[in-house]
Each structure stands twice: as structure tokens, then as C-alpha cells.
């Protein structure tokens, strides 16, 4: 795994720090990108318009000496978003902080809530602003009343923290976590519906599922699983950490009751921001993770009662939404898939390369996982970083081992070609000594 010392040992050019403090250039790039759509054409065409995406890339302050292919972990924010956070944080420290955090900024937080709801298809009274997907999911996972022997259903590929959350309830309360296996890769997502349904038993009380599996970028059929579970009277908690602002969809179209996501991944929002959706008629029965007053029982804000916390990241979500909508969700998804296919199809020409993600339409996101036969994944990841300054994510799971590759809208084809050239060298001749 990448060490903190190894990462911090990379020199950061002074120009990068300057760019962060000078959002004017980034704002101009965002404005230029927003002027392109009228002439750009359908999403599939825009996905291949390198001039358009070069303009988008200039809105970020990334160090181009590094090829960052781990945007699925935490993404950098555009300079416009960085400047917003700094501006709000500076104001909170110049104004009486207690007044700013406990009252003055509340109307602006509510404006952000409404903007999120409009962008992603929900009622504002059904959206809580959290710190990440894990917090939102744990609110749901711990918020249901369960008795000893009650079963909760998940997969072996769910995010480790979410599995650990249910395992803690197993140890503490005597519930039972039942996990199913999803094929790797899964060309037909609807096959997952049958796997979930077959695993439901008389004691099943709750289902957790990923919208996009973090290990491989596999897309699961949320709407179909939710419909099947609803017929059986079972609630479904949806982990949308890698789906929201990556795939082009609306939460209301999924017809789910519970959905959580991180906003610092694919929305490019400030680090430490997330979203929790709870259908209005389900609010009263779901316990918050931290205690809230009884008067908030039917109020989505009961899930935000975490004590004093910075509001600058929350307010910076507004600029991230502006940037996202300027790109256009359909164009953004098309570009992500185009980038995935650019590197994946090239590497698949190498006999030793194995792709653990389906390239079938609709089966996966712009994230994919790859390995080279006979090459240790950890050593490959380390070589790419140490010798090439290409950052990837090592996946070491009983069902899949490889490098998770997650480029972003600022990633250039030249950067992907650098990655492919390095991988091809290893595929044909092994890891250099």
C-alpha cells in the first residue's frame, strides 16, 4: 500500500500552490467549458472531444508530473471549489465563529440541500448532508431495530467498513450477517437479482447492496433488487459511493428508500462531504447514529446532529454542483466510459492481461480492475508509483486481485498512454529488477 511518507515525499511545485490561491484562471476554464455544450453534440461525441476535456482539466490544480488513477478513493476538487471552501472558512474565523457556525450560515446550508435535491432527484426534506458515504450507510445500518437471530443480507464484495458495521452488530446484538457472492466479472447485472432473491430466508430483515462495487466498478441493478425486496417486505440500503455524479441517474428513478454516497469522489466536492437520502415516510422509524431531540424524529436534519463541525466544506458543495452541471451528467458518464475503454481495450491486446470488470454496455462504470498473470499486484502497484509516479489502487480480495484504475474528467489520454506503456512493459517482460 502507498505509505504516507512515500506520498508526502513527492515535491509539489510552487505553481500548484499559486493555482489554489488564484481561482480566476480556474473560473475562466469552467466558464469556457460551459460554453462548449451547445456546439459539442451528443454525449458520445463530446466524450472524444479532447479540446473540451482539456478545458475541463485546466479547472483543476493537479500536479501533472503524477498520473493519478485513484480518483475513486478521494478526488481533487476544481480550484473553484477549493476557493469556495477557503473563502467560507476565512469568514468563519473573521466573524464570531459561534454565530457563524450556529446560525448565520444555516440559510446557506439549506440552499445547498435544495440544490442537491434538485440535481439528484429527491425532496430536500429527504436529504441529509453527511461527511461521507460510510457515515450515511452506518446511520442506516445501525438505525434499524433488529433482534438476535435476525438476518441481514449483503455480498462478500461490499465495502469492508460496511461489512464490519454489521459484524459489530453480530458481536454486540446477536444478529446474523449473510453474504452472497457476485460473479467477477458480471456481464449480466440482472443475474444479481436472482442471487439476492435466492439468499432471502424467513429471518431476513434487511438488505445492503452496492450501486457500483468499489472493487471492480461493477454496476448492480438497484431498481430491480429494490422492487424484488419490496414485494417481500424488505428494506434495501443502497451504497452509492461510486455511483452518484459518476453514472447519469436520479435517485427517485431507483425507487429506493435509503441511499448514501460520498460527494468528494465523483462530484468533486470538498473532502469530507456526503449525502444521505431517506424516503420521507421512513424517517420516523430510523434511529440517528448520534442522538437527536425527539422533536426532530420526522426531520431529515436529525441525522446531522453531530455537534460543532466546519460548514465551509458543506457550502463548497454548491460550486461542485455548478461544475458538475456545467459538464453535464450524460457527457461526464460518457467520458468516464470512454477513458475506461481507452486503456482497457489497449491492454487486453496483451495475452497476460486480465480484466476483472465487464465492458458490456451498462454492466460497469468508468472504474475497472486489471491484473497481469504471474505478476504480484502489490509489487506492480509499488513499481508504477515508485518508478513511474503512476498512482493506482491495489485490490487484494479473495475474489479479485488486481489494480483498480479510476481516471477522472481531468485525466488526459496521454496520461493513460503512459500507464498503458508501463503495463505493457511488465506484461511482455515482467517487472524490471
Overall description:
It is a single chain. By secondary structure, this protein is α/β, with parallel strands linked by helices. It contains 18 helices and 13 strands. Helix 3 packs antiparallel against helix 6 (50-57), helix 3 (23-35) crosses helix 7 and helix 7 (79-94) runs antiparallel to helix 15. Strand 6, helix 14 and strand 7 (258-262) form a beta-alpha-beta unit. It has 2 domains: 4-76 and 329-427, Aspartate Aminotransferase, domain 1; 85-322, Aspartate Aminotransferase, domain 2. The model is unreliable at 1-23 (pLDDT under 50). It has a 7-stranded mixed β-sheet, with helices on both faces. Strands 9-10-13-12 form a 4-stranded antiparallel β-sheet. It has a two-stranded parallel ribbon with strand order 1-11.
Amino acid at each position: 500500500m502507498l505509505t504516507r511518507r512515500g506520498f508526502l515525499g513527492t515535491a509539489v511545485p510552487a505553481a500548484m500552490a499559486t493555482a489554489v490561491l488564484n481561482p480566476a484562471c480556474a473560473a475562466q476554464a469552467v466558464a469556457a467549458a460551459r460554453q462548449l455544450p451547445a456546439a459539442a453534440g451528443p454525449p458520445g461525441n463530446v466524450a472524444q472531444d479532447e479540446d473540451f476535456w482539456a478545458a475541463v482539466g485546466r479547472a483543476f490544480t493537479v500536479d501533472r508530473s503524477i498520473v493519478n488513477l485513484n480518483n475513486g478513493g478521494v478526488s481533487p476538487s476544481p480550484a473553484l471549489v477549493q476557493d469556495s471552501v477557503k473563502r467560507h472558512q476565512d469568514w468563519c474565523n473573521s466573524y464570531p465563529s459561534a454565530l457563524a457556525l450556529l446560525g448565520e450560515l444555516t440559510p446557506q446550508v439549506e440552499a445547498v440541500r435544495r440544490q442537491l435535491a434538485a440535481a439528484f432527484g429527491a425532496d430536500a426534506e429527504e436529504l441529509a448532508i453527511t461527511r461521507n458515504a460510510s457515515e450515511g450507510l452506518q446511520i442506516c445500518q445501525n438505525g434499524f431495530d433488529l433482534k438476535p437471530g435476525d438476518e441481514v443480507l449483503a455480498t462478500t464484495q461490499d465495502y469492508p467498513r460496511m461489512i464490519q458495521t454489521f459484524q459489530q452488530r453480530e458481536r454486540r446484538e446477536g444478529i446474523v450477517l449473510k453474504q452472497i457472492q457476485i460473479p467477477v466479472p458480471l456481464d449480466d447485472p440482472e443475474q444479481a437479482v436472482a442471487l439476492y432473491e435466492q439468499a432471502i430466508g424467513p429471518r431476513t430483515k434487511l438488505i445492503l447492496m452496492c450501486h457500483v462495487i468499489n472493487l471492480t466498478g461493477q454496476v448492480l441493478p438497484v431498481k430491480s433488487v429494490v422492487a424484488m425486496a419490496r414485494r417481500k417486505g424488505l428494506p434495501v440500503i443502497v451504497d452509492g459511493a461510486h455511483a452518484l455524479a459518476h453514472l447519469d441517474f436520479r435517485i427517485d428513478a431507483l425507487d429506493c428508500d435509503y441511499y448514501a454516497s460520498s460527494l468528494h469522489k465523483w462530484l468533486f466536492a470538498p473532502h469530507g462531504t456526503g449525502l444521505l437520502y431517506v424516503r420521507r415516510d421512513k424517517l420516523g422509524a430510523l434511529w440517528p447514529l448520534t442522538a437527536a431531540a425527539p422533536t426532530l424524529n420526522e426531520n431529515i436534519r436529525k441525522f446531522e446532529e453531530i455537534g460543532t463541525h466546519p460548514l465551509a466544506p458543506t457550502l463548497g458543495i454548491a460550486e461542485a454542483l455548478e461544475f458538475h452541471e456545467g459538464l453535464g451528467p450524460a457527457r461526464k458518464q460518457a467520458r468516464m466510459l470512454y477513458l475506461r475503454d481507452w486503456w482497457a481495450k489497449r491492454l487486453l491486446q496483451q495475452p497476460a492481461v486480465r480484466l476483472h470488470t465487464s465492458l458490456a454496455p451498462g454492466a460497469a462504470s468508468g472504474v475497472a480492475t486489471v491484473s497481469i498473470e504471474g505478476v504480484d499486484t502489490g509489487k506492480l502497484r509499488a513499481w508504477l508509483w515508485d518508478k513511474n509516479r503512476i498512482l493506482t489502487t491495489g485490490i487484494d480480495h479473495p475474489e479479485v486481485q488486481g489494480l483498480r484504475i479510476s481516471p477522472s474528467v481531468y485525466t488526459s489520454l496521454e496520461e493513460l498512454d503512459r500507464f498503458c506503456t508501463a503495463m505493457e512493459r511488465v506484461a511482455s517482460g515482467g517487472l524490471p529488477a
